[in-house]
Amino acid sequence: MPALWIAHVHVTDAEAYGRYAKLAGPAIAAHGGAFVARGGRYVTLEGTERERHVVARFPSVEAAESCYRSPAYQEALDHARGASERDLIIVETTE
After folding, report:
1. Which uninterrupted H or E stretch holds 87?
2. pLDDT digits (tens, 9 = 90+) for 44-61
3. Per-residue confidence at 39, pLDDT binned at 50, 70, 90?
4. CA dihedral 77, 79, 82, 85 (to 10 degrees)
5. What domains are defined for the chain?
6. Residues 6+ apart with CB under 8 A from 15
7. Transmembrane ranges (predicted)?
8. What pLDDT score does 8 carry?
């Protein structure tokens, strides 16, 4: 079953987070991920306000998790640590 990678992000260091984004995109694509939403307009109805929201579709939960644990994504993530506050989940779709 396909899966969605959903991140809610508050960026605290835009320069460092920009380095993360440049590396994360190719790592996500290498694992079959494709962005459905990346930034853009949003409305928060409940929960913690975060100004950046990213959704990527993967072929499976396993593919998304493999991406997260990959050396390429971990290299990207090194730039996000300390430059953002993030929540990230992977959820299987019903399709």
Report:
1. strand 84-92
2. 999 989 999 999 999 999
3. confident
4. -50
5. 3-92 (3.30.70.100)
6. 83
7. none
8. 96
